[in-house]
Design brief:
Chain B: One of its GO terms (molecular function) is RNA binding. Chain B: Belongs to the RNase PH family. Chain B: This is Polyribonucleotide nucleotidyltransferase. The complex is a heterotrimer. By secondary structure, chain A is of the alpha+beta class. Chain A folds into 4 domains: 35-85, OB fold (Dihydrolipoamide Acetyltransferase, E2P) (Beta Barrel), CATH 2.40.50.100; 86-176, Nucleic acid-binding proteins (OB fold (Dihydrolipoamide Acetyltransferase, E2P), Beta Barrel), CATH 2.40.50.140; 178-221 and 252-327, no CATH class; 225-251, no CATH class. Chain A has helices at 10-26, 136-140, 142-145, 225-238, 248-254, 258-277, 283-295, 306-326, and strands at 35-36, 51-52, 56-59, 62-65, 69-74, 77-82, 94-103, 106-110, 117-124, 151-160, 163-168, 174-175, 179-183, 196-199, 204-208, 213-218. In chain A, the strands form 4 sheets. A 5-stranded mixed β-barrel of chain A has the order 7-8-9-11-10. Chain A has a 4-stranded mixed β-sheet with strand order 1-5-6-2, with no helix packed on it. A 4-stranded antiparallel β-sheet of chain A has the order 13-16-15-14, covered by helices on one side. Chain A is flat. The model of chain A is unreliable at 225-252 (pLDDT under 50). Chain B starts with 21 loop residues before the first strand and ends with a helix. Chain B has one domain: GHMP Kinase, N-terminal domain (Ribosomal Protein S5, domain 2), CATH 3.30.230.70. Chain B contains 4 helices and 9 strands, in the order E-E-E-E-H-E-H-E-E-H-E-E-H. In chain B, the strands form 2 sheets. Chain B has a 5-stranded mixed β-sheet. Chain B is of the alpha+beta class. Chain C is α+β, with helices and mostly antiparallel strands. Chain C has 2 domains: 5-282, Ribosomal Protein S5, domain 2 (2-Layer Sandwich), CATH 3.30.230.70; 292-337, no CATH class. Chain C is built from 7 helices and 14 strands. Chain C has helices spanning 13-24, 102-117, 150-164, 219-224, 252-291, 301-317, 322-335, and strands spanning 40-44, 50-55, 58-69, 80-87, 127-129, 133-145, 166-167, 170-173, 179-182, 191-192, 200-206, 213-215, 227-233, 239-250. In chain C, the strands form 4 sheets. In chain C, strands 1, 2, 3, 4, 5 and 6 form a 6-stranded mixed β-sheet that branches. A 4-stranded antiparallel β-sheet of chain C has the order 12-11-13-14, with helices on both faces. In chain C, a hairpin with a 3-residue loop joins strand 5 (127-129) and strand 6 (133-145). In chain C, helix 3 (150-164) packs parallel to helix 5 and helix 6 (301-317) runs antiparallel to helix 7. The N and C termini of chain C lie far apart (66 Å). The model of chain C is unreliable at 1-6 and 314-337 (pLDDT under 50). The chains are: A alpha+beta, B alpha+beta, C alpha+beta. Chains in contact: A-B, B-C. At the B-C interface, helix 1, strand 8, strand 9 and helix 4 of B face helix 2, strand 14 and helix 5 of C.
Chain lengths: 327, 226, 337
């Protein structure tokens, strides 16, 4: 947790400190001695034979760390997990990103990595849903699929010679609308089996991108492309480029109801609170925080206040003690 | 003017081989990947590191290593009189070059090809030894950003006045126009990476005296940073 | 940093390996040993204060000009010295026209530090009217060909130009003695600058292999080297400046050894420069004597003493051409009235 800029009064500070201390004591004892800074040598049993992983290098026969972080050991592999670093992509990760450039036959996506990722036109489903070879006309119509500063969801396909490639062939990937994009440090999002979450009681979608970009938005049914295309065609006649509708009826259909927007904001604030406190972001925690805030009848903006943050910390302590007792 | 009193105390009460107080703080710039504020006595410097990120100027992209860029500037209010040109003048360009080459030597650039690492250093308060403070702050900011490095770079300055080698000069001692040297070393590898000396003719034996003082001080900085 | 990658000349892996392995056995590609300098030639131009230095393929020209300006407020009794570098694109494909890049600025500042901070040029003698008028010396360095080690060559060019520069003599006149009259060279002989010592820059290149050090790197060696250190010292053994701006880290012992070697080299180069300047001075003196016909009746006190000095120097050096010395003798006789 970075030095929080929250204005805490004295009691809140004390409570926060106590809660943080309890969390520290709950955390695994093994790791407390394993933090290293750059150029520290890592204690290793050399007879066992050692594999040097990320964040290590060799100097005069001893292994030294190249980043500040925690030493992790898995069988013979020794590596240093950096505390704060940019996202490190792996094949199959679900990520959320923003389009920065439309280039010949590809889009460049910003994903909080050391380079922009590339989404090839051929890795994207065409609007009419047919599987066919991309022609020159498709290339010219790339902007109708994604434009600059669109938010999209995709999966990491792999590393090619010119960078990181993504693919968005399935229904659940593609352009994200009607919601908020949040950035949290990448190490707060752990890789799980499920990254797409649909919270039915609120009617919102939460997508936890492994690169630290989190999308919270109104739930969108993953419909068949053909049907969507027809619906959007009929709507286009009544919409101008700004999306302002002339037809009042259609307006009600298209815009998001207020209740759902409120839940979207609550969930987004929950993620913001977790990010400030530095706790790992999982869907269960988000749901808990949203429930907590609605049960206390807090206004949405009060969720970002100092009192709520302290409450969340204390809740986290409770939760972890419970899990530790179970586990 | 007497810089070292007969009892062996300097103008601010320090001994000749004593450094000023050091304070360092990480995470000052929220938006940056890594940042640090470094204080050496009254000299205060903030460094911010962005990267590795996409290269902005495609023509400068290096296919096998990361591009390191550095910009040094002094705030208008950092010195006593308001500065007319905080950056873009020749001194700032030279110091930017020096800092960039020093950090480039210790960053493992080959692990991040086709990307760019930006280091921005700004002097908030200048009281002598700004170059060293900048390098120390940049090292901390790079470590904070999780960028892999061979070793930390620590730096300190020293001078020679009234026939005594003095460590960590402040502004008054610096403006006495005596010889002064700034040294940056890699503590683990025990190698010198930065050595800049301005003097008005000094023979070699005195250099070694200053140099020894700097080695002691850089070890001290290293322990403090860790 | 502003250079475009497309314009740089690329280095092959084989060339790099060759240079590095050769250095391990103390050999360099052009046949020198690690601590040998390339051949140095210093030529001078027609005007006072212009010098041309050639070191191997590196070609640098230096020009010195002077102008009367107002002094700095905090130094009313001293003149000023400023250095401008011009990295002409004809010297290297990676130089871009326009604003000086980082390396140009660095070169200018290192040469500047060597000359100004070490008080090589006596700035107090440049003062004409304290607080009102002083001479501002401007040194322009033009890089014509980049064959490696521009710093040393530029430094030598600057020194050679400074040594042969003559500034016009000026005197105070006018009603209240506050007006400055600048005498053209025909009226009064211009004066040389007072140089206390000659700071010589010696550049070392460090390579990735341990303890591989070479002096005076060529362009190819510069592309291979890991780090560079430039020491500026004079023949008396004083260190004027050291610049090691990052790059490969080296042990302290290596640095001290480099300093010792540098002081020896500085002595050699100082000798060479002095020889070149002296021969140029005699050459111009001879030409001047041929220029002045014996019948100019000018009351030139300064020139008088100058001629006497030149006569002495000519006699000392045993001028080979007998006729001009006869002219000199006749002229001094005519002036001695």
């Amino acid at each position: 947790m970075r030095g929080t800029q929250l204005p805490l009064n004295q009691t809140q500070k004390v409570r926060l400190q106590r809660a943080l201390q309890q969390l520290e004591s709950l955390s695994s004892k093994i790791n407390s001695n394993a933090s290293v800074t750059v150029a520290d040598s890592i204690p290793v049993n050399y007879e066992d034979g050692v594999l040097k992983g990320h964040g290590t290098s060799e100097l005069n026969g001893e292994i030294i760390a190249t980043v500040c972080g925690i030493v992790e050991r898995v069988n013979k592999l020794v590596y240093v997990r950096a505390l704060r670093a940019r996202y490190k992509p792996e094949v199959g990760d679900i990520i959320v990103g923003r389009v920065v450039e439309v280039a010949p036959k590809r889009w460049r996506i910003e994903i909080n990595y050391s380079q922009d990722a590339v989404l090839m036109l051929s890795s994207m489903n065409l609007p009419d849903g047919i599987q066919r070879r991309r022609t020159a006309i498709d290339e010219l119509n790339m902007r109708s699929i994604f434009e600059e500063s669109d938010v999209i969801c995709a999966e990491v396909r792999g590393f090619q010679h010119d960078g990181l490639h993504l693919q968005a062939r399935s229904q659940k990937y593609g352009k994200l609308k009607r919601g908020q994009l949040l950035t949290v440090p990448p190490y707060l999002v752990k890789r799980r089996k499920q990254h797409f979450h649909y919270l039915e009681q609120y009617g919102i979608d939460v997508i936890l991108g492994c690169n630290g970009f989190i999308w919270v938005g109104e739930h969108v049914e993953a419909t068949d492309d053909m049907v969507e295309e027809q619906v959007s065609k009929s709507e286009q006649q009544t919409m101008n480029s700004d999306g302002i509708l002339t037809d009042m009826e259609e307006q009600e259909q298209v815009s998001t109801p207020l209740e759902i927007r409120r839940y979207v904001c609550r969930a987004a604030n929950a993620v913001r609170v977790l990010s400030t406190l530095g706790f790992i972001v999982t869907i269960e925690v988000i749901v808990e925080i949203v429930n907590l805030s609605s049960s206390m009848n807090l206004d949405i903006h009060e969720m970002l206040g100092s009192e709520f943050c302290v409450l969340v910390t204390e809740k986290e302590v409770e939760r972890r003690t419970l899990t530790k007792k179970k586990g | 003017m007497e810089f070292v009193s007969p009892e062996g105390l300097r103008l601010d009460g320090r001994r000749p081989t004593e450094m000023r107080q050091i304070r360092a703080e990480l995470g000052a710039v929220a938006k940056a990947d890594g940042s640090a504020v470094f204080e050496m006595g009254n000299t205060k410097v903030v460094a911010a590191v962005y990267g590795p990120r996409e290269v902005q100027n495609r023509s400068q992209q290096l296919s096998d290593q990361a591009l390191v860029r550095c910009e040094y500037s002094m705030a208008n209010f950092s010195t006593g009189d308001r500065m007319r040109k905080p950056k873009g003048d020749r001194r700032s360009t030279e110091i930017s070059l020096v800092i960039r080459q020093t950090m480039e030597a210790c960053i493992m650039t080959h692990l991040m090809p086709r990307s760019q690492i930006d280091i921005f250093v700004q002097v908030l308060q200048a009281d002598g030894g700004t170059r060293s403070a900048c390098i120390n702050a940049a090292t901390l900011a790079l470590a904070d950003a999780g960028i892999p490095m061979h070793d930390l770079v620590t730096s300190c300055s020293a001078g020679y006045l009234n026939s005594t080698p003095l460590l960590d000069l402040n502004y008054v001692e610096d403006s006495a126009r005596g010889p002064d040297v700034t040294v940056g070393i890699l503590p683990k590898l025990d190698k010198v990476t930065l050595l800049q000396r301005i003097s008005c003719r000094l023979c070699m034996t005195d250099t070694t005296g200053e140099y020894k003082g700097i080695r002691i001080s850089t070890r001290w900085i290293n322990y403090n940073e860790g | 940093m502003e250079q475009r990658l497309a314009n740089t000349w690329r280095f092959t892996v084989n060339e790099r390996k060759f240079i590095e392995t050769a250095l391990l056995s103390d050999l360099r590609v052009d046949g020198r040993r690690p601590f040998d300098y390339r051949n140095l030639t210093v030529n001078f131009g027609k005007e006072d204060g212009s010098a041309e230095v050639q070191m191997g393929h590196t070609h640098v020209m230096g020009f010195v000009t002077a102008q009367l300006v107002q002094p700095y407020r905090d130094r009313p009794n001293e003149g000023s010295l400023s250095i401008f570098t011009e990295f002409s694109p004809m010297g290297d494909p990676s130089f871009e026209p326009g604003r000086p890049g980082e390396s140009a600025v660095e070169l200018g500042r290192v040469v500047d530090r060597g000359l100004r901070e070490s008080r090589a040029v006596d700035t107090e003698s440049l003062c004409v009217l304290p607080g009102r008028w002083v001479w501002a010396i401007r040194i322009d360095l033009h890089i014509l060909d980049n064959g490696g080690n521009l710093l040393d060559a530029a430094n030598i060019a600057a020194l050679a130009a400074l040594m042969t520069f003559r500034r016009p003599e000026c005197s105070l006149g006018g009603e209240d003695g506050q007006e400055v009259i600048v005498h053209p060279p025909e009226e009064k002989e211009p004066l040389p600058l007072i140089l206390h010592h000659l700071p010589i820059a010696v550049t070392f290149a460090f390579f990735a292999n341990e303890n591989s050090v070479a002096i005076d790197p060529t362009h190819h060696e510069e592309a291979v080297m890991g780090g560079r250190m430039t020491t500026t010292l004079n023949a008396n053994g004083d260190i004027c400046a050291i610049q090691k701006a990052g790059g490969e880290g080296v042990l302290q012992s290596v640095i001290m050894q480099c300093l010792r070697i540098a002081s020896v080299k500085a002595g050699d180069i100082t000798e060479k420069i002095k020889k070149a300047v002296d021969s140029f001075n005699t050459h111009t003196a001879l030409k001047k004597i041929k220029r002045h016909p014996s019948s100019i009746p000018m009351d030139v006190d300064g020139a008088d003493s100058k001629l006497r000095e030149k006569q002495k120097s000519l006699v000392d050096k045993k001028a080979t051409i007998p006729c001009p010395s006869e002219n000199v003798v006749r002229e001094t006789k005519s002036l001695d009235q």
